[in-house]
Design a protein that fits this description.
This protein is of the alpha+beta class and 316 residues long. Helices cover 42% and strands 17% of the residues. It folds into three domains: 4-62, Arc Repressor Mutant, subunit A (Orthogonal Bundle); 67-196, no CATH class; 204-209 and 216-306, Endonuclease, Chain A (3-Layer(aba) Sandwich), CATH 3.40.960. It is built from 13 helices and eleven strands. The strands form four sheets. A four-stranded mixed beta sheet has the order 8-9-10-11, with helices on both faces.
């Protein structure tokens, strides 16, 4: 059993690690007043357990996914970043709930002991590495491309859409980086390329609308375009068809909207109408259950006899 002095210093260390995500480091051990021998006895007694080299947790502290991420990042330092599924979960993207703790490291670091899941790459480009919540991670763009190697299409689809919605990436950015990496024997590029065809919206419903336009041979609209209202407030519309006065909005509400929702939507349409825009709105039931109606309605509005000079709009 540890001596009274060791127990006192151990308690001091427990207080210190509370400010370091419950992880003990050699510096914190020294700050708590524990000698090397005392610390060695605590480790041999399994009072403190290793999470990664130089990173420990108290035996009474549950080992969490975030703890492993932070310990691995601290151990690997500037020669690593969160990889693929780990990075997309760290960014908080939808469809990303993998418990894997994986790191991307340069090929030259392949000799590292496998405390975590390490993925080596020749393309350890500093443009792909960012700091998020205190941890070095692949950018959302690179993480999605790496995630495509193993993820199911539905999960990858959700990650793309949420990353675009959260402004962590864009379809042009994803497409450009994918093309730069695709010629290097990279798995998943074909699936990713297909999914990007209908990306650019901010929800499953918006993706479904884009897919309808593509499969019907209709033009692809611009997505998430910013307009200025008559009261000088900014609003963002779901879709705008280039060269026409048409805007399309899709709504996920299946039930009755509240009075406040109806008022907001009406004022939104009125503001756009005063600027010369034609606004079409489709519900989830339209897009999912009656795609023929959506295609016919949009196609009719896009026909030459309906086209007119496009009103002025602020670019996205």
């Amino acid at each position: 059993m540890p001596s009274a002095g060791v127990r006192t210093n151990d308690s001091a260390l427990i207080e210190l690690v509370a400010g370091n995500h419950m992880l003990a480091t050699r510096a914190l051990v020294e700050s708590a007043g524990l000698s090397r021998d005392q610390w060695g006895r605590l480790i041999r007694s399994d009072i403190w357990l290793p999470v990664a080299p130089g990173q420990w947790r108290h035996a009474a502290t549950p080992l969490t996914w975030e703890m492993k991420v932070r310990a691995g990042s601290a151990w690997l330092g500037h020669d690593a970043a969160l990889y693929g599924p780990t990075a997309t979960r760290w960014w908080g993207l939808e469809g990303c709930n993998s418990d894997e703790v994986g790191f991307l490291v340069p090929r030259s670091q392949r000799h590292l002991p496998p405390w975590m899941s390490l993925h080596t790459t020749f393309e350890f480009d500093r443009r792909d590495i960012l700091s998020h919540r205190g941890v070095r991670t692949s950018s959302a763009t690179r993480a999605i491309i790496d995630m495509a190697r193993s993820a199911r299409p539905r999960a990858l689809e959700a990650a793309i859409d949420s990353a675009v919605s959260m402004r962590y990436t864009s379809v042009p950015t994803l497409t450009k980086r994918m093309r730069q990496l695709e010629g290097r024997g990279r798995n998943g590029i074909r699936v990713l390329r297909t999914l990007l065809l209908d990306s650019g919206g901010e929800s499953f419903l918006e993706r479904a609308f884009l897919r309808l336009m593509r499969e019907a041979g209709l033009p692809r609209p611009r997505t998430q375009v910013v307009h200025r209202r008559t009261d000088d407030r900014v609003m963002r519309v779901d879709f705008q068809f280039t060269g026409t006065p048409m805007i399309v909005e899709v709504s996920g509400r299946r039930g009755h909207a509240s009075d406040r929702d109806r008022q907001r939507d009406a004022r939104r349409r009125n503001s756009l109408g005063t600027q010369g825009w034609v606004v079409l709105e489709f519900t989830a039931a339209d897009v999912i259950d009656d795609p023929a109606y959506v295609i016919t309605t949009v196609g009719a509005e896009l026909s030459p006899r309906h086209r007119s000079q496009r009103p002025h709009a602020v670019g996205a």
